[in-house]
């Protein structure tokens, strides 16, 4: 099936998320109680809810999206290109509204591609859209659809080959498929610190864009195609 996928109808996507509050002390008391309940089985016995709060960004109930990077394939003079655009904002409602407006201009059958997207990016986006009272774009709606009707590609799922217990990071998958990735100043575990302590959202945007590029190149590998050279990758503002 992947062989027949038209890359011109694929949007590669990655999101970066942070806790909704800079520190656990800033979290309203009733949400602190709910955080303690939610993370009870995830925390190590010696970890307090306060100590575990740095991971709040990965849970849509306690996190928010600060950046969405998107990659679009296109062909020019029979050569494959990739165009990258990012939507970023401290105000999540504005960010998601801009994202929704962008998708309104795309075809309804647009296919998303993300690494671990089915477990993280796609549901996280839907949950935060709902929280922010923004209608979920048709491209993200899966309610009532059969699995084969859902136009969502997940490069981690492709690598599983049916092994539901298998997890492989994007960096590892890129390495074994010989996809060169730019060196990053940060990794996913540092996004909260860079956002709240260093207040450097542009650095997070750059990191997010690199993940989109890597995911796009991995997708090409799965399709048996050559990766796109750096000179054919454009980042637009």
Automatic annotation (TrEMBL):
Signal peptide: none annotated. It comes from the Bacteria. Residues 62-225 form the Predicted 3'-5' exonuclease PolB-like domain. GO terms for molecular function: exonuclease activity. InterPro entries: 3'-5'_exonuclease_PolB-like (IPR019288), RNaseH-like_sf (IPR012337), RNaseH_sf (IPR036397). It holds the Pfam family DNA_pol_B_exo2. This is 3'-5' exonuclease. It comes from Pedobacter mendelii. The lineage of its organism: Bacteria, Pseudomonadati, Bacteroidota, Sphingobacteriia, Sphingobacteriales.
């Amino acid at each position: 099936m992947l062989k027949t996928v038209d890359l011109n109808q694929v949007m590669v996507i990655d999101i970066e998320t942070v806790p909704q509050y800079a520190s656990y002390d800033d979290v309203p008391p009733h949400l602190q109680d709910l955080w303690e309940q939610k993370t009870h089985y995830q925390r190590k016995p010696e970890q307090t809810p306060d100590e575990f709060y740095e991971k709040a960004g990965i849970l849509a109930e306690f996190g928010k999206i600060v950046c969405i990077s998107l990659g679009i394939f296109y062909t020019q003079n029979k050569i494959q290109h990739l165009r990258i655009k990012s939507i970023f904002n401290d105000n999540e409602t504005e960010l998601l509204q801009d994202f929704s407006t962008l998708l309104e201009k795309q075809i309804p059958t647009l296919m998303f591609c993300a690494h671990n997207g089915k477990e993280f990016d796609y549901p996280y986006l839907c949950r935060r859209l709902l929280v922010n009272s923004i209608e979920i774009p048709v491209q993200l709606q899966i309610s009532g659809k059969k699995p084969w009707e859902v136009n969502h590609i997940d490069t981690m799922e492709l690598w599983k080959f049916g092994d539901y217990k298998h997890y492989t990071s994007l960096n590892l998958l890129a390495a074994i498929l010989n996809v060169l990735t730019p060196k990053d100043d940060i990794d996913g575990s540092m996004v909260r610190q860079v956002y709240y302590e260093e207040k450097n959202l542009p650095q997070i945007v750059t990191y997010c864009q690199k993940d989109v590029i890597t995911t796009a190149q991995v997708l090409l590998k799965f399709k048996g195609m050559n990766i796109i050279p750096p000179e054919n990758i454009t980042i637009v503002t």
